[in-house]
Amino acid sequence: MFNHHHVSHRHGLLIGAAALALVAATPAPAQEATRDYDLPAQALGKSLGEVARVSGRQVVVSSSLVRDKTAPALKGRYTAEQAYDALLARQNLKVTPVGAVLVLQAAAPGEPQPAAAESLSEIVVTGTRIRGAAPVGSNLIAITRRDIEASGYATTQQIVQALPQNYGGGPNDATAGMSIRNGAGNNIAKGSSVNLRGLGPSSTLVLIDGVRPALGGVSGTFADLSLVPSSVIERVEVLADGASALYGSDAVAGVVNLAPRRAFDGAETSLRYGAADGFNESQASQLFGRRWSSGHAVIAYEVYRRDRLAAADRDYASENLSGLGGLDYRSTYAGPGTIVAGGRNFAIPAGQNGRNLAAVQLAADQANRGDAWAQADLLPRQTRHSAYAAIRQDLNARVTVFGDLLWAQRKFDSRVIPDLQAVTVSPGNPFYVDPLGTGQPISLRYNFTGDLGPTTSSGTVRAYNGVVGAVARLNGWSGTVTAGFGEQTESTRTDNMINRNRLGVAVSDPNPASAYNLFGDAGSTNRATIAAVRGFTSSRGLYDVWFVGAKLDGALLDLPAGTVKLAVGAEHRQERFKQTSLNDVYYAAPQAVANVYPPSREISAAYGELLIPVIGERGSLVRRIDLSLAGRVERYDGFGSTSNPKIGLDWRPIEGVTLRGSYGTSFRAPGFQEQILGPGYVAYQPITIPDPQSPTGVSTVLGLLGNTADIGPERAKTWTAGLEVRPTALPGLHAGASYYNIRYRDRIADPNSAAFDVLFNRGVYASLIEDAPALAKVAGYYATPFLYNPDNIPASAVQIILDLRVQNLSVVRQDGVDFDLGYDTLLGGGQLSLGLTGSYIFHLKQGFTPTAPRVDVLGTVGNPPPLRARGAIGWSRGDWALNGFVNFVDGYRNQTITPAQHVEAWTTTDLQLSYRSPVSTGPRAGLRASLSISNLFDRDPPFAVLRTPSSVIGYDADNASPAGRLIAFQVTKAW
To answer: For the residues of 916-960, what is the DSSP string, one character each?
Structure first.
């Protein structure tokens, strides 16, 4: 995994194939599409809402500014800006861009500025704490409501994970059971995360309307996007830059903020159905919103269902990869099974029940083989219900109170890889057959799926996230106090497992009526005995967070270049994770497993941000310069304090050109699981793994598992430099590029996730490897109660000790560039949009100790590929629009097999045809219908021989989806 391999790129093919336009990740273009409007003279607020709905160009409206105002009739074809200008003519009002949205403001001096609660929150965009300002020095990626609708995606995780800056490795329902890399092994409830830059989901901070939600996964390792209903999202804001100076822990790779449709007015019903080869999905949602003179409220409900996708429905989802150019990796665990005696295999014949089996009937030096994926799933069945409610109310002209609540429940079930372990059978078993005639115990490899049924993982996830607060305004300053609570529970269970204790008793039973019979076809054993050895595991994890906060922001003083603005605040939160488990696998009866997690912890923080207009609008090459200074001090009761500053600079030398840069430090606090020590978490496991230096190609190692002591926070330094061009001479064109550089130290990582790669990269992992350890040292580990030895490997066979415990690694360094190109123009009586966006990583270097070599792991399994890009071509005319998208994932190197394998690049195409009713009255008012096709050409994932935690499969779930072509139809009606 840690050897860098130069991968050839087909960039020219990508750009040439897509005369492309990125609709889903760019701000509104300089030249906007025109739309038909037919609005009567009516309340101004209602007309503004209609223009926002039809154009997709959002506007944040303060009820105090539009109260008692009437808009003129609007009939004809306009851009969004033209429509707003027409409605606001002679109203002494204007719309001003703030980050990704437009804000309604007073145009005449002395008229009150927006003061309603909705405006105060909406115009604080991600990347700054100051109202009415966009982030300085950093590029903000915005996905609007209209972009979401045009993408054809059904769920929040699909919308966010399509970003080129995101890497698919980590906790996702598609990687569950496929990998333990990037925290995927903690995703026992089949949730979905976001992993910016491939630095791990715990290095990406996810917010819901600026607030940290309760976390999911074992010990709360990630924010579960699958619980957030896509129908209530107004926009997604992504800051792909370090931001601990503003937001604290986890914001190393960036911040993803999900802004809900709090100001929605009216009602909206949406129905969607999608089908693919092997599964289908359905989605329904209902929104209600109501505005009144002093506030508004919204309530929404969404239900989403998706069937399971069986591995049997995909040719590459098998252990037998010989038909794809690989090898047959099927194991010797089957039904009937394989006897191992004297170092030789003996295949048990099929078509018999084991009661009259003789040694002469065994096929010597042959093995029965079974495919562990034959009765397993690639995607789990998911059913999610979610509800959202929000209210804002002005108490008077200066004070507003508000509250938000998000509730979700998700149920899942999936057939998983069975637990395959050899069973020792002694001569006392009434069905015992000795192929060598020695009368000694034999080892039998048997797949119990035929007896017990497929191993299934199922469970329920419930989450609540709520916040209440108040805003007070005085003389241009705003003070906000908030308090909130979040809770996420994950109840999971795995059934049809083997209870090793009761199986041992049944195999040793001399009574043929009740003994376990492993010598025939599946089902040869008495059903009562099979039921007796059926075991399970279950767990219930609870993560909760309480928080309070206060913030004050406003105009500090006036300079010749403009107004200096300040935001200061303080926050306090308490986090807790608890877990209870039952194990009916290793004990005679179900046994509770102790909760070994640390107690709750408390975090206190104070922050400040200063926005300084250094130079105002001038005609020289220093036309305008804005400076941002921010800092945050944070104290954890577990390990102490951290302080993180950030500086940002925007320079506009000429009209239409912006140069920007930023520098700051960030950190990530260790999670609850990373601080566990002692019994219940320590394990020592002997196992045989590939070793290129061994004459046999494998070595027997003793892996030390668990945590090292005194794990501290990860720390990072980040800086960016970017350029954005919107030339006035060529309206509709925009181009931007942003270089980033991240230097991580003391990064927390789990070497166990790369256990199969360690001996291929001895230089990188030298500090973890102890060759030829003394037998007494190995025996000492064997003598502890923490030994886990399912294959009965003797201590004398151990050749190497591997220290695979979680620890603070020394260095991770990554740099690259994000780019965004687009052009909008009129063509054929309609609007044509072209563009391309992507992220290209130059280096991803890792080192395990300060003295270890820095090895570039970019473009290897478990790490992001060099290039990810997304583009589209869009054309709209009248009521109809056609959008085509191209998604590109670069090729990379699979170093987990010998010889290493080149994995080809993967390009997929999406298509959407949509209709939007142009009228504002009658039965067609507010109607939108779309036909979307994801992966239009049904491209299979590139072939890759990938080791999973317990098997082998023919594709890499970190970089490709097994879903295939999915056709979806959606109808939405606003009324």
So the answer is: E---SSSTTTTEEEEEEEESTT-PPPPP--EE-SSSEESS-TTT-
Number of domains in the chain: 2
With residue 502 as reference, give the H or E element that holds it.
helix 500-508
* Residue 761 is assigned to a structural domain of this protein: yes
Strands (DSSP E) contained in 729-866 are: 733-749, 769-771, 800-803, 807-827, 830-847, 855-856
* Full-model pTM: 0.84
What's the Rg (C-alpha) of the chain?
30
Q: What is the CATH number of the domain that holds 110?
A: 3.55.50.30
- What is the spatial distance between Cα 256 and Cα 325, in angstroms, rounded to a whole number? 40
Tokens of 172: 């996702």
Residue 200 domain-assigned (yes or no): no
Tell me: the pLDDT tens digits for 601-614?
999 999 999 999 99
How far, in Å, CA of 692 to CA of 965, rounded?
A: 40
Residue ranges of alpha helices (H) inside 22-178 are 44-55, 63-66, 80-88, 117-122, 145-151, 156-161
Q: How far apart are CA 172 and CA 192, in angstroms?
A: 4
- Say if CB 32 and CB 79 are below 8 A apart: yes
Closest by CA position to 423, among listed 515, 495, 494: 515
Which structural domain range is residue 764 located in?
671-710+756-803
Q: Residues, the chain, total?
A: 975
- Closest listed residue to residue 195, CA positions, set 674, 712, 645, 839: 839
Per residue in 160-205, pLDDT tens? 999 999 999 999 999 998 988 888 989 999 999 999 999 999 999 9
In a domain, 389, yes or no: no
Q: What sign does the CA torsion over 342, 346, 352, 353 have?
A: positive
Q: Which one of 785, 803, 821 terminates a domain?
A: 803
Of 113-117, 235-239, 358-362, 861-865, the one with minimum mean pLDDT is 113-117
